[in-house]
Design a protein that fits this description.
The chain has four helices and ten strands; from the N terminus they run ααααββββββββββ. The strands form five sheets. The chain has a two-stranded antiparallel ribbon with strand order 1-2. Strands 3-4 form a two-stranded antiparallel sheet. A hairpin with a 2-residue loop joins β1 (about 205) and β2 (about 210). The chain is about 15% helix and about 15% strand. The radius of gyration is 50 Å and the shape is rod-shaped.
């Protein structure tokens, strides 16, 4: 009866392990062909040597012991590739950001599977988070690494888990501190972005990046003013310019610019010369013009009324003077 109980317990344990065991274990999937026809080890060698392999040693040194990757009981318990829940059997994706890994493999040129996806068996999600978002295990008791923006230690040292400058959490093939996501923020508050210029508007800090302000609008709505922004005065300046109102016609006077009411009409030219025997006019470019009244032959314009009348031989005695002494003095009669 005792033997039967022990056997029952043993069989139950085997059945339970079969149910519990993950469908995609890390090492077998790493070592053998995956759905794309290649194994992980072709690009990431180092676990093939078993416990003595360099990647195994690196993971051992930069995690907190065997139980960081295998649950209590030692290395005989397989690591579940897709898990990152930090439970009794943690997985690779706890440190290798799960959402970026398929993006990484696709960008790196890994052969696609039948659905056109690279390494989708282990990394089904292709919606990466930024490089500076820590994977779940960073900064916990599982991992000795806590900064997603540092290769910890620098590339080329034994602790570099990839041998290429760290991990690529967002899948863009730019690692750790080299990724723009890990750049120091340009600003922390709006004051960090202030260019101390009034005319450029108010700069703001949005998500660590300075955003230019909206330039001051100095348009006063008056067509004939020159609108400018004065940095020294921290104010808009509106300078009237009469030239904007000029209609190129001197006859209607000189137009002027009122800084409030805009263009104002000028005073038209007065071209009256008081002479009835001239025709007074104005040309847009030359101004006043005085043309003489033209009368028919034998007539002349009478200045008294501006009417053409038969020409008189004389109007005063001097008109008749022939400048000869011997002929006597000529006079004008009627």
């Amino acid at each position: 009866m005792k033997k039967l109980s022990i056997l029952s317990i043993f069989l139950f344990a085997i059945a339970a392990f079969a149910v519990w065991a993950p469908s995609v274990d890390a090492y077998p999937e790493y070592q053998t062909a995956n759905g794309a026809g290649d194994s992980c080890s072709q690009c990431h060698p180092g676990f093939d040597g078993g416990f003595a392999g360099p990647l195994h040693s690196i993971h051992l040194n930069y995690t907190n012991g065997c139980n960081s990757c295998h649950n209590a009981g030692g290395g005989s318990i397989p690591v579940l590739i897709g898990s990152s829940d930090g439970g009794a059997q943690p997985g690779c994706t706890g440190c290798h950001q799960a959402d970026g890994l398929q993006e990484h493999h696709t960008n790196a040129g890994a052969p696609p599977d039948g659905n056109g996806l690279a390494c989708a068996t282990c990394h089904p999600n292709r919606s990466p988070v930024p490089e500076n978002v820590p994977p779940p295990y960073y900064g916990t008791s599982v991992s000795a690494i806590d900064d997603p923006c540092s290769s910890q230690p620098p590339p080329g040292e034994d602790g570099d888990l990839q041998g290429d400058g760290g991990l690529d959490n967002d899948g863009d093939l730019i690692y750790d501190e080299a990724d723009p996501d890990c750049a120091e923020p340009e600003c922390l508050e709006d004051a960090d972005c202030d260019d101390l210029l009034f005319c450029t508007g108010v700069e703001t800090c949005v998500d660590g990046v300075c955003v230019a302000g909206t330039p001051v609008d100095c348009n006063d709505g008056v067509d004939c003013t020159e609108d400018t922004c004065d940095e020294d005065a921290d104010a808009c300046v509106h300078t009237p310019n009469d030239g904007f109102c000029d209609d190129s016609d001197v006859c209607n006077g000189q137009e002027t610019c009122d800084p409030v009411n805009g263009c104002q009409s000028g005073t038209p030219l007065d071209c009256d010369d008081g002479d009835l025997c001239t025709i007074d006019g104005c040309g847009p470019l030359v101004g006043c013009v005085y043309d003489p009244v033209v009368c028919p032959a034998g007539q002349a314009c009478d200045p008294a009324d501006g009417i053409c009348k038969p020409s008189a031989e004389c109007t005063v005695d001097e008109d008749c003077d022939d400048l000869l002494y011997c002929t006597g003095v000529e006079t004008c009669v009627d």
